[in-house]
Amino acid sequence: MSEPPYTELDVLIIGAGFSGLYQLHTLRPLGLRVKIFEAAPDIGGVWYWNCYPGARVDTGSECYQFSLSSLWKDWNWTEMFPGQNEMQQYFHHVDEKLDLKKDICLNTRVRSAEWQECEKKWIIRTEDGTVVRTRFFFICAGVNTEPLIPKFEGLDTFKGVWRHTARWPRNGLDLIGKRVAVIGTGASGVQVSQEAAACASKLTIFQRTANPCLPMRQRKIYTCTAELESNKKRKEDLYPAMFRRMLQTPGGLAYTSVPQTTFSVTPEERHLFYEQLYAQGGVGLWLCGYSDALTDRKANDEVYAFWRRKTLRRIKDPKVAEKLAPEHPENAFGVKRISLEQNFYEIFNQDNVELVDLSENPIERISEDGIITKDGTEHLIDVLVMATGFDSISGSITAIDIKGKNGVTIQEKWSQGTHTYLGVASSDFPNMFFTNGPQAPSGLCNGPTCAEIHGEWLANLMKYAQTKHIERIETCPEAEEGWRQLVFGINAMTLFATGKSWYNGANIENKPFEPLSFVGGVPLYMQKCQEVAEHNYEGFVLS
Ligand code: N01
């Protein structure tokens, strides 16, 4: 048991990723005693944990950073879609500039949090037995934090090596010349498969549901020191407007859909527009197309048909092509997160790569030597990669043993459905706030954008509490119900309501199927949060 140099805090933050770091930065000027507890040995959140081969940002890097000029003026991305290593360097740059680490306790995993009504404080206990009392408790633990490791029968008997992508060994895992299996074809599965295909003697990819990927079209931003000066000027011209614009788009990105609807233009215009978006690369065909692509199934089908035509021609074996880009997909295009790929579809043309369609032939069990599918085939492997995703959005909160008022736990409270107000607080849990959590734009918003929106809003709330000598802040069931209705109502107007993915808890057994993100977009979300603040934090009981 370690003795922390403090036992009393004003705010304890969990997590040193984008959200936690920004929160610490915004709370400091208030003169509060604030610390971050971070489970990992370094800062960066998901960008510390996800060090599997090929781990790479799939949002354009210029949007995927803090908007503070003190940070971007001295930072130059080398690639539009940087790898995990460059992301870690970015976090070290942020730390250096903002001098954050002195208030961060690394290797410190919070095990439990218990509200003490008499003291109006949270008692926080860490895995190593440290106990801290804090007035406010902020959970900035990330959207995709808790790995989902399916309970495959026989996994414990497997003689080879198996790893979840978010628990990859820091010193790497040798895939060269190995027989590798990847289960899962989300962003992580796609990225790790591309790398494994280049060096494994055999790569078997187990796909349960086809998940469309768009070409990344990676590009360098600057390559040599001589270009730094021009990059500096370019950033000065571009960035201030870009960061302001990001708050005006649904996804907190510098781009969004066009105002026209799909069938308001001629088929030819539509086709050429899709071609242009596809050629540009990135998420354009998903997020920058016609305004009804994610609300009208027929409009959505047009995008999918275009994407399918493009994809089918990249895969030589028509049977494999049909599995990767089926005529009748399980989900509408983009209601499950679209991944970016570099050569994902071409790897299936290699002799050493095989696709196993789990929808036809599910995994029965893991043997000592491999994976046995329902048809009786034993796929012999040395390395098993679980690219199986996460208990997303709410999972990083429910993973902590949190007891609120009257001993109610957050797991119990959300077991039948998530109840929050503005996606930042939940009744029965006074003085507890979360960022990038359930019912905020979280899963559908650029991470750093959401981190800044919440960071600023919560810092203002703390300032208000300080000024008014408020010690206790709790939302109420009526406010939560109103917010829940809004979140569900907007979701029902979109195709997201029809999709099965981590966006709505469908990937976790027994997790309620419900919208875990606010799909109304960043501008509306900010407006709602601002209105609450302007009305003296209406929906919260302050005392
Ligand atoms: O996880 P996923 P991910 N048997 O949930 C399959 C972010 N991210 O780690 O579709 C067999 O998307 C599952 O199948 P199905 C990004 O936001 C970002 O890839 O449920 N298969 C699916 O194919 C992303 O969206 C970057 O049928 C099983 C896969 O596993 C999010 O993290 C990089 C299974 C899981 O896909 C999550 O991505 C990486 C089972 N029992 C991740 N259980 C960036 O570049 C699950 N699957 C920023």
From TrEMBL:
It holds the Pfam family FMO-like. The keyword Chaperone does not apply. The lineage of its organism: Eukaryota, Fungi, Dikarya, Basidiomycota, Agaricomycotina. This is Cyclohexanone monooxygenase. It comes from the Eukaryota. GO terms for molecular function: monooxygenase activity. Keywords: FAD, Flavoprotein, Monooxygenase, NADP, Oxidoreductase. PANTHER family: L-ORNITHINE N(5)-MONOOXYGENASE-RELATED. Its cofactor is FAD. The keyword Ion transport does not apply. Belongs to the FAD-binding monooxygenase family.
